[in-house]
Specification:
The strands form 2 sheets. The protein has a 5-stranded antiparallel beta sheet with strand order 3-2-4-1-5, with no helix packed on it. The chain has 23 helices and 10 strands. Helix 2 packs parallel to helix 17, helix 3 runs antiparallel to helix 8 and helix 3 packs antiparallel against helix 17. Strand 2 and strand 3 form a beta hairpin. The protein is elongated. The longest helix has 24 residues. The protein has a domain of about 60 residues: Regulator of K+ conductance, C-terminal domain (Alpha-Beta Plaits, 2-Layer Sandwich). It is of the alpha+beta class. One of its GO terms (molecular function) is monoatomic cation transmembrane transporter activity. Pfam families: CitMHS, TrkA_C. Keywords: Membrane, Repeat, Transmembrane, Transmembrane helix, Transport. Its main location: membrane.
Length: about 600
């Protein structure tokens, strides 16, 4: 009994920390792992066994393959065809959500969204309609697509491995398809019919508008002859001002220098264009003796040049920007990049960015050298919202990665190789074939997810060994006492789905699977329908933006608030839950 109390306290503490989100989930999971080890719930030789688990290796390999397919332009080619579907918003929403769902069955959900979000925004800016109408259904479609195959989402991979650890063969790559594809189709149909009324419309993404008006904070400052700053660098100018502002351009005669470097020296009669609020502007005028050169608002024509670009980007769920500000990161000093504006939930934040701490889903407007901006996005874990140029290249660049990926699927489906071996070999072949450079092999593995899985797998074992899983399963069965077995499956699916909305879905699968197995043992039933219920419940968090990375990514561009996800997510959860229970009962009977 003492072991059950200890594991209960550790897991409840971990769940609270997951929800509070003060520390990253992989750090919390490792803390829970060490706590369970200290109190004797996990044998010393098994503490780091999760890092060698087949499910962890498979997830890493699938992430590498997803990046290879993204890099080769295979999915870009499909996304570009959406432009041929006409200007009807409803039709474009159907095509975008359907394509995102299909792609997400084979590559990571976030990889699919990284490709499809810029397409949706470009269609919206071309006058096709509100991007907000399409982005939330696309995010939910990516989650639905993950249920179709074993490699579509980490919970499926985990459940397959847990099945193998209990004496059965692991699920094959298409064992999830009969249930997953019907659930995905039911979810898509429901969204296509009801999205017009249930998805909130955000004015921030109407036709060609932006969630922020940069021009409202742009001012021309004239540097007269004899001024003390003549001959000084921009760094020296900026150092005189306590508040945060951005020098976005210098007009020198007929020449315009966009995003000038900090070592650029000022000359007499230069016109310096700054982005600053009224208070900061007054401080600049008082301290430096610049003169106002224009009273009217400026447009943004001088923000870009052949080399300098202005690009929007989303702060990703595991971005290094989270919790830090532009001043902390010294983006201008280190990279020559200006942060022109920040929008959160579709609304602009104050123009002074010195105190703004970035959050997942924030939309940033950055100005700088195009190549440097690309490096900054990659370095700090941001998703650019400008549509990427298609990477079609040679025919071999499309066919080869598709051939390698298809070969891995066939080898695992026919039983020639296990899934971890087949996909690990395919990842290696992508490098040997130069589809991805070897330096990028590990860059696009989501290491926090890998550490989370490796830490929670031993915790799941401790939950089972301590008897806590049996106790929780008994409580669930007591609630559904006297009811058909399908009610127990429904209860397990519902609890898992709710849990996955507040913690990482991989962790939800690891923690709920032992409970599902104990429920099956108590009913003397097959493990399979209960494991399938856990897999589906963990993969479909529709109620909150924090439930999955895809939900976070669309929050800023769509202008959604936290509560907006319930409007479509709750009825969608009910529909797919009912369909899932029916399909699980038909496809995976409890007895036999």
């Amino acid at each position: 009994m003492a072991e059950q109390i200890w594991i209960g306290l550790i897991l409840i503490t971990a769940l609270v920390l997951f929800v509070v989100d003060r520390w990253r989930y992989d750090f919390v999971a490792m803390g829970a792992l060490f706590a369970a080890t200290i109190v004797g719930l996990i044998p010393r030789e098994e503490v780091f066994a999760g890092f060698g688990n087949a499910a962890v290796i498979t997830v890493a390999a699938v992430l590498v393959l997803s990046h290879a397919l993204w890099r080769s332009g295979v999915v870009d080619m499909m996304a570009s065809s959406v432009k041929q579907m006409g200007d009807q918003v409803w039709l474009q929403m159907i095509v975008l959500t359907g394509l995102t769902t299909f792609v997400s069955a084979f590559i990571s959900n976030t990889g699919a969204m990284a490709i499809m979000i810029p397409v949706a925004l470009q269609l919206s800016r071309n006058g096709a309609g509100h991007a907000s109408l399409m982005l939330m259904p696309m995010a939910f479609g990516s989650l639905l697509g993950g249920t179709i195959t074993m490699i579509g989402t980490p919970p499926n991979i985990i459940i397959s491995d847990i099945r193998a650890s209990h004496g059965a063969e692991p699920f094959s790559i298409f064992d999830f398809t009969p249930v997953g594809i019907v659930v995905a189709l039911a979810g898509l149909l429901m969204m296509w019919i009801t999205a017009r009324w249930l998805v909130p419309r955000s004015k921030s993404r109407d036709t060609s508008s932006s969630p922020y008006d940069v021009s409202a904070y742009l001012t021309e400052l004239y540097l007269p002859e004899g001024a003390s700053l003549v001959g000084h660098t921009l760094f020296e100018f900026e150092s005189k001002i306590k508040e945060n502002f951005a020098v976005v351009a210098i007009k020198r005669g007929k020449q315009t220098l966009s995003a000038p470097p900090r070592y650029q020296r000022l000359r007499a009669e230069d016109v310096v264009i700054v982005e600053a609020d009224a208070e900061t502007l007054q401080q600049i005028l008082d301290v430096t003796k610049f003169e106002l050169n224009a009273e009217q608002k400026l447009d943004t024509r001088f923000l870009v040049s052949d080399e300098i670009k202005v690009i929007e980007g989303i702060v990703g769920h595991d971005s290094r920007l989270i919790g830090r500000s532009a001043a902390d990161l010294r983006l201008r000093h280190r990279f020559g990049v200006n942060v022109l504006a920040v929008a959160r939930e579709g609304q602009p934040l104050k123009p002074s960015l010195s105190d703004v701490r970035f959050k997942p889903g924030d939309v940033l407007l950055l100005q700088g050298d195009a190549e440097v901006l690309n490096d900054v996005f990659n370095r700090f874990g941001c998703l650019p919202l400008a549509q990427r140029g298609l990477r079609l290249g040679k025919k071999r660049q499309l066919l080869l990665p598709l051939g390698i990926f298809t070969g891995a699927i066939l080898a695992s489906a026919l039983g020639l190789l296990s899934v971890p071996v087949a996909f690990s070999m395919a990842a290696g072949l992508m490098v040997l074939a130069k589809v991805i450079p070897i330096r990028e092999l590990y860059e696009h593995i989501e290491w926090p997810i890998i550490v989370l899985l490796a830490a929670t797998i031993p915790l799941g074992g401790a939950l089972e060994r301590s008897g806590a899983a049996d106790t929780l399963a008994g409580a669930a069965l007591w609630v559904s006492q006297g009811a058909p077995g399908v009610v127990a499956i429904s209860l397990l699916l519902t609890v898992t789905m709710l849990l996955s909305n507040i913690i990482n879905n991989a962790a939800a699968a690891v923690l709920m699977a032992p409970i599902g197995i104990s429920m099956a043992n108590s009913l003397e039933a097959s493990h399979d329908p209960f494991l399938m219920a856990v897999a589906l419940g963990a993969a479909l968090p529709f109620l909150t933006p924090i439930g999955h990375q895809s939900n976070i990514l669309v929050m800023g561009p769509g202008g959604y608030r936290f509560a907006d996800y319930w409007r479509l997510g709750l009825p969608l959860s009910i529909v797919v839950g009912i369909v899932a229970v029916i399909m699980i009962s038909v496809t995976w009977p409890m007895h036999g």
